[in-house]
Amino acid sequence: MILTIRPEHPEDVSAIREVIKMAFKTMPHSQHNEHLIVEALRKDDALTLSRVAEEQGKIIGYVAVSPVTLSNAEAGWYGIGPLAVSPHAQSKGVGSKLMQSVLNWLKENTKGCVLLGEPGYYSQFGFKAVEGLTFPGAPPEYFLSRSFTRYYPRARVTYHPGFYQNTAHGDANPA
Ligand SMILES: CC(C)(COP(=O)(O)OP(=O)(O)OC[C@H]1O[C@@H](n2cnc3c(N)ncnc32)[C@H](O)[C@@H]1OP(=O)(O)O)[C@@H](O)C(=O)NCCC(=O)NCCS
């Protein structure tokens, strides 16, 4: 099977929504609003990267990148997420290929990136919890960063407002 990672096209919108909904359906910590986050980012032109994994004409995976704000006003940092792979296509390397694809771009164009996720999965891509670079409201061990300059700012991170909508407590859900 040939797997293609490519930017989203306008006609992909409903397939992307379905992939995200299916991927997060059974995730215990999900607020099940991840597809709405992507739609809010798209509406606001805040999808820096929006890439799909396509196999035999079907979209089976998705990843978004959007700008984040640092409390020390440093520019050039981005958030990865949501990352989603259809349940039937998981554990075949699709998530890794989506991650590699956005990391290649981020390495060339940004200072660094953050995400909220399982350290066991994201450590393979160079992500780690960094003291001083924080995301209020999430357990610190799950808020992970990767710098492309080796320097890590000391700052609080805020995501795009789209991440703070439709959540149970108005908390961010950086997917
Ligand atoms: C996380 C996700 C994107 C990974 O996609 P994938 O295509 O299955 O990933 P890969 O095939 O590249 O890697 C799979 C391997 O990563 C590891 N892995 C996957 N999820 C993991 C997790 N939560 N914690 C630790 N390791 C994990 C496992 O070793 C797995 O291999 P295995 O299935 O043989 O045990 C996918 O499982 C998914 O969509 N999950 C639901 C949504 C989600 O949690 N998104 C991420 C938000 S943080």
TrEMBL record:
It comes from the Bacteria. Residues 3-149 form the N-acetyltransferase domain. InterPro entries: Acyl_CoA_acyltransferase, GNAT_dom, MshD_Acetyltransferase. PROSITE patterns: GNAT. This is N-acetyltransferase. The lineage of its organism: Bacteria, Pseudomonadati, Pseudomonadota, Gammaproteobacteria, Alteromonadales.
